[in-house]
Amino acid sequence: MIKKWFAAGTIGAALTLSACGSDTTEVNEEQDTTASESVEEAEEEVGEAEEEAAEEEATEEETEESEAGKRSNPVAVGETKVVDITIYDNESNSYEGKAEITVNSITRGEEAWEEIQSTNEFNEEPAEGHEYLMADVTATLVEAETEDYAWYVDAMNFSFIGSDGSPYDWMSVVVEPELNGDVYEGGKVEGKVVNMVKQDDPILLVFEDGNWDNVFFSTEE
After folding, report:
1. What tens digit of pLDDT does each residue of 60-83 get?
2. What is the per-residue DSSP string for the chain?
3. Phi, psi at residue 188, to the nearest 5°?
4. 212 falls in which pLDDT band (50, 70, 90)?
5. pTM (2 decimals)?
6. According to the model, what pLDDT value does residue 36 have?
7. β-pairing verdict for 214-218 and 204-208
8. Mean pLDDT over all residues of the chain?
9. How far is it, in rounded angstroms, from Cα 158 to Cα 56?
10. DSSP label at 70?
11. Residue 140 — very low, low, confident or very high, per pLDDT cuts 50/70/90?
12. Which pLDDT score, from 0 to 100, does residue 1 have?
């Protein structure tokens, strides 16, 4: 009888230990699962943070690119800038359009004066401490609300701004070819924009677009 009770007790203890072991295994598995989920969540948070940082950086780069043409970030020589323009008909009705402006090259100093002097002997010699700056510019009308009327563009669409922020007065200079012409959609005109400026003064060319916004072009190659 005692042996039976002993045997029964032994079996019960074994079952209890087995049950405890099972519970311990489940607890360990739950802990492992929780730890694994925590690691995955942490990795996801790191990945999301890196992705957001990359998106912010890309946005900043796009912003910098979109702001090309500001005084702090002028359009480089050889680069093309799309600007808004306005076309007028014979009754002063206005039509919107878009044009591409490119400053192809810059010539200044003695080289510019030699070309200007050879073009017309009556061109005025640069004043003391001054020189001529000559920009070769291409303007292309890429889009227009009308195909019946032309966009008129010439050198006077541009201003010369000195390093002190002041505009230069226009000098009358005969050059060939001068930027001047009526342009219909799809057409372009190329010519020179010239003015007398102070020697070695970093000049910005400014084009005023159809929204009365100034678009700045560098003259530093």
Report:
1. 555 455 589 999 999 999 999 999
2. -HHHHHHHHHHHHHHHHHHHHHHHHHHHHHHHHHHHHHHHHHHHHHHHHHHHHHHHHHHHHHHHHHTTTBTTBPBPTT-EEEEEEEEE-TT--EEEEEEEEEEEEEEETHHHHHHHHHH-TTSPPPPTTEEEEEEEEEEEEEEES-SSSPEEEEGGGEEEE-TTSPBPPP-----SSBSEEEE-TT-EEEEEEEEEEETT---EEEEE-TTS-EEEEE---
3. -145, 160
4. confident
5. 0.70
6. 61
7. antiparallel
8. 84
9. 36
10. B
11. very high
12. 45
- CA 1 – CA 17 distance, rounded (Å): 24
**Cα dihedral value 94, 97, 103, 104, nearest 10:** -130
Q: How many CA atoms lie within 13 A of 120 on its CB side?
A: 10
Tokens, residue 60: 């900043």
Give residue 51's pLDDT. Answer: 72
Q: Which residue has the tokens 């000559």?
A: 134
* Structure confidence at residue 31 as a pLDDT band (50, 70, 90): low
Burial per residue of 113-130, b for 16 or more beta-carbon CB atoms within 10 angstroms, e otherwise: bebbeebeeebeebeeeb
CA distances from 132 to 2, 6, 67, 139, 142 (A): 122, 117, 29, 22, 31
Please report, for residues 78, 89, 97, 134, the alpha-carbon distance to residue 172 in angstroms, rounded to integers and kept in the order given: 26, 28, 30, 13
Whole-number pLDDT of residue 9 = 46
